[in-house]
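Moderator note: this is an archived Q&A kept for reference. The question asked for a predicted structure of one protein chain; the sequence and the answer are reproduced below.
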Amino acid sequence: MKIIETKAAPNPRRVRIFLAEKAVEIPYEEFALNIKNIQSDQFASLNPMRQVPILVLDDGEHICETMAICRYIEEIHPEPRLFGETPIEKARIEMWNRRVELGLFFAVAQAFRHLHPKMSEREVPQVADWGVANKSKAIQRLGLLDERLRETKYLAGDTYSVADITALVAVDFMAAARIERPQEFLGVARWYEDVSARPSAAA
């Protein structure tokens, strides 16, 4: 078993943090995410979406999509449970993880893809107005998380979960997208200091 990744990309980092929290070691294979490699038939055979990370199982099957990989790892290494234990915990974690993925993470990614010069070959066409619009969307979504984190220790409650991993990576990704985190978001600031100090955050 191995994971094909590009270490500088945000989604592979989510998997690395997830594995570090579980103290699970899987070999990594670095993939250069340049336009030539992305467009190759060989890469498409691994993942037709032409994205990383990719979990390659011992029988040769490929598991793609970040959360699919994390869920597979959770099944074979259940503890600590990062997707929840009780029905309500699982539902709450799923709810907040999707809110972060489809809200903050998506907006930050769109700002990065449509405004950063290095993405001009991969995001065709780049639409600058869309990138700018998503900067404000990212701040608005982060504000919703701030409201939540003024009330709870972690996004889904008292226990660290995969939702916090997604949010941490999204917040760190804001720097690459040139989106400044508002200083008045004190709930986010308190939470960020906590989760970024966990050893797994350096994975």
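Archived answer notes: The radius of gyration is 17 Å.
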